[in-house]
């Protein structure tokens, strides 16, 4: 019988999230397994309650309205498997070999996740063979000649004190068959993928190829994106640290703006398709006058346009702070020829530099002298170590990834949802991108803080 977990601790914020992103309730929640788990877990437990079963479930949508509607319709509300250690596991720890790979851009906390996985495997389950794949998925491909890194408790002892990833990272597609060939050659039983949307898409194909070959290899993913735009994850690791660092940059911009006549502080933050960092930092500080995000693309010229709005702010208050996510306003900076990076992402134009130069030109045209300070802290934010909250979050993600893998589960992402750690099918996580809902209370809070209600916007382009 299914046992639903419901918590009051984070329920309010979770319901807000469902409103913020517009949750699609047609979510598949079944998690594939490699086979029956028959090996008694070596974990030493002081209480039986530390183990969970597949019958422990976490509701996808925690609102009472949705729950009652499902019951009235005679169907069970969709729910995710609760993450955590199982009483029986699939793999024999003494014979298991594991691999960890990190791909995509840097993010605070990657080393914390690596460390958590290694320590949970070694101390919790007695797994002695864990290898790090160097420089992303290319580390699997022989042509690159990249040796693996043996990961031991001694090797990862202090890596959480540093930013980046000790394994290195890279972007770009690699042949799926070559990746699975490498897993076979290395006799890997579990692959831990730490990455974002592109990495997960590759991971889903790796799972399909493993199943086609009828191999017993588990693939477990840990969501990593500084933009916080992975679907079905309440918050990705490193996001809190990114917002904290973004706030420091905004404070500096505000100080510069109020410290000079007609001062303008302009800050560009990460956010290719989703403006969570810019919007959250704006809400946290309440010192931003204009927050520009990809979901609410702005009008530059004319009545209600950004240039006119900033000019009015300067004439009335003598200073202004503008925060822009990197993916905002791309209609103004993207060239006629669409260029893509190694991962297939459309290369963004530099909206920060564009606004800096356009502001200067506009105020010169209207004969108003301004002092503009432009700050782009992106690479500093990406490269710092995780703060305490993120470090703890990373530890929990890594440990729960190990519990899932040891139980023989595969094709899943470990997520934090409805106040619990859960298993989400990778295929569901890549169906869409998490973006800010402009009709949500979250975005309304940004508008109330900045006062930009009258700023004209274009309909956002859906990536």
UniProtKB/TrEMBL annotation:
Pfam families: PFK (PF00365)
UniProt domain Phosphofructokinase: residue ranges: 97-404
A single GO BP: fructose 6-phosphate metabolic process
Site (Important for substrate specificity): 198
Residue sites binding substrate per the record: 225-227, 270-272, 326, 379-382
Pathway: Carbohydrate degradation; glycolysis; D-glyceraldehyde 3-phosphate and glycerone phosphate from D-glucose: step 3/4
Positions annotated to bind ATP: 105, 171-172, 196-199
GO cellular component: cytoplasm
Active site (UniProt): 227 (proton acceptor)
Annotated signal sequence range: none
Binding site for Mg(2+): 197
Matches recorded under SUPFAM superfamilies: Phosphofructokinase
Primary localisation category: cytoplasm
Cofactor: Mg(2+)
Purpose of the protein: Catalyzes the phosphorylation of D-fructose 6-phosphate to fructose 1,6-bisphosphate by ATP, the first committing step of glycolysis.
Family: Belongs to the phosphofructokinase type A (PFKA) family. PPi-dependent PFK group II subfamily. Atypical ATP-dependent clade 'X' sub-subfamily.
Subunit description: Homodimer.
Protein name: ATP-dependent 6-phosphofructokinase
Source organism: Dissulfurirhabdus thermomarina
């Amino acid at each position: 019988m299914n046992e639903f977990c419901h918590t009051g601790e984070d329920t309010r914020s979770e319901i807000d999230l469902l409103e913020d992103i517009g949750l699609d309730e047609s979510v598949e929640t079944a998690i594939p397994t490699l086979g029956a788990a028959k090996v008694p877990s070596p974990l030493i437990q002081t209480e039986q309650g530390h183990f969970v079963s597949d019958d422990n479930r976490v509701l996808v949508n925690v609102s009472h309205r949705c729950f009652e509607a499902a019951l009235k319709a005679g169907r069970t509300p969709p729910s995710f498997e609760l993450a955590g250690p199982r009483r029986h596991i699939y793999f024999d720890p003494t014979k298991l070999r594991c691999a960890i790979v990190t791909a995509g851009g840097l993010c605070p906390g990657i080393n914390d996740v690596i460390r958590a996985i290694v320590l949970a495997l070694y101390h919790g389950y007695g797994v002695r063979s864990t290898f790090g794949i160097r420089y992303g998925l290319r580390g699997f491909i022989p042509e690159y000649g990249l040796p693996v890194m043996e990961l031991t408790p001694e090797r990862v002892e202090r890596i959480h004190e540093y930013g980046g990833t000790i394994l290195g990272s890279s972007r770009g597609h690699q042949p799926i068959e070559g990746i699975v060939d490498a897993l076979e050659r290395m006799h890997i039983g579990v692959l831990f993928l730490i990455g974002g949307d592109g990495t997960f898409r590759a991971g889903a194909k790796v799972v399909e190829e493993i199943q086609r070959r009828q191999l017993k290899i588990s693939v477990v993913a840990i969501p990593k994106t500084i933009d916080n735009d992975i679907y079905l994850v309440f918050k990705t690791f490193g996001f809190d640290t990114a917002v904290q660092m973004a706030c420091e940059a905004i404070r500096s911009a505000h100080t510069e703006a109020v410290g000079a006549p007609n001062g303008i502080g302009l800050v560009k933050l990460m956010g290719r398709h989703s403006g969570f960092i810019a919007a959250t930092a704006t809400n946290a500080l309440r010192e931003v006058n204009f927050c520009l995000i990809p979901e609410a693309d702005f009008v530059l010229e004319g009545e209600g346009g950004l240039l006119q709005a900033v000019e009015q702010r300067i004439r009335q208050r003598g200073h202004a702070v503008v925060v822009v996510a990197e993916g905002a306003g791309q209609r103004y900076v993207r060239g006629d020829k669409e260029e893509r990076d190694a991962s297939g992402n459309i290369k963004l134009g530099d909206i920060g530099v564009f606004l800096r130069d356009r502001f200067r030109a506009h105020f010169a045209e209207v004969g108003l002298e301004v002092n503009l300070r432009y700050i782009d802290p992106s690479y500093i934010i990406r490269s710092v170590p995780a703060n305490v909250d993120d470090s703890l979050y990373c530890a929990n993600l890594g440990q729960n990834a190990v519990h899932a893998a040891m139980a023989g589960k595969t094709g899943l992402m470990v997520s934090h949802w409805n106040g619990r750690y859960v298993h989400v099918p990778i295929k569901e996580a890549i169906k869409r991108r998490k973006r800010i809902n402009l009709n949500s209370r979250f975005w309304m809070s940004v508008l109330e803080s900045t006062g930009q209600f009258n700023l004209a916007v274009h309909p956002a382009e859906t990536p």
